[in-house]
Design brief:
212 residues, alpha/beta, six-stranded parallel beta sheet, 9 helices, 16% strand, AB_hydrolase_fold
């Protein structure tokens, strides 16, 4: 049986290179990437035309859930969530004013905003890119305020694997994808599990792909 392709989606403040520690352990697979274009690269979000497993990190999971995943045979979430900002129905989210302050600061000092956020996520010292696309970074934060993929998650009827970090500092990620049929694992770690646990993440992806 032909192996499914792998499609990787990164979160806010990162790019497709975020997945390289995992990808280097998956040489036998055909890997495809979403690129948000936060740091000068051209945005790209074309989904594969053949059956694939979608693998997302953080906001990348929410973005995936809002897309047409008809050819997707399974979703693996690392530190993911279906909604990020708080409202009456989701009080555990991050308040919009926090993200709005980040948006204001991005237009003045993007290096400081990205550095602070990556440190919060557990990257210390943060490896900052050479170029910043402030417009796309700000749009990404607005997306975190506005987007809600909980209905899409509720209707999900395919394989769903939910990996959360025991010490993830972002509460929406710590709660993960709240779905009754998800296969959930709690790993000892923070918000960057695909990087801090890259070998384990690759092994999980390989095992799932080989079982499908």
């Amino acid at each position: 049986m032909t192996r499914p392709l792998l499609y990787f989606a990164h979160g806010w403040s990162y790019d497709q290179s975020f997945w390289q520690p995992v990808i280097k352990n998956l040489a036998e697979f055909s890997c495809h990437y979403e690129e948000a274009g936060y740091f000068g690269a051209s945005p790209s979000c074309k989904l594969p035309q053949s059956p694939y497993i979608a693998i997302g990190h953080s906001a990348g999971v929410m973005n995936l859930l809002k897309r047409d995943l008809s050819r997707c045979v399974g979703l693996i979430s690392f530190n993911g969530f279906a909604r990020f900002s708080s409202d009456i129905s989701y009080p555990e989210g991050i308040t919009a004013r926090v993200l709005e302050r980040m948006m204001t600061k991005l237009s003045q000092n993007p290096e400081d905003v990205i550095s602070s956020f990556r440190r919060l996520c557990g990257e210390d010292p943060p490896a900052l890119p050479a170029h910043f696309n402030q417009e796309r970074l700000i749009a990404g934060l607005q997306h975190l305020i506005d987007e809600d993929a909980r209905l899409s998650l509720l209707g999900w009827d395919k394989l769903l694997v939910n990996i959360v970090g025991s010490t993830d500092p972002l509460l929406p990620s710590q709660k993960g994808l709240q779905h009754p049929c998800s296969l959930q694992e709690i790993w000892q770690g923070g918000h960057l599990l695909p990087q801090t646990h890259s070998t384990r993440a690759a092994r999980l992806i390989r095992d799932i792909a080989n079982d499908l």
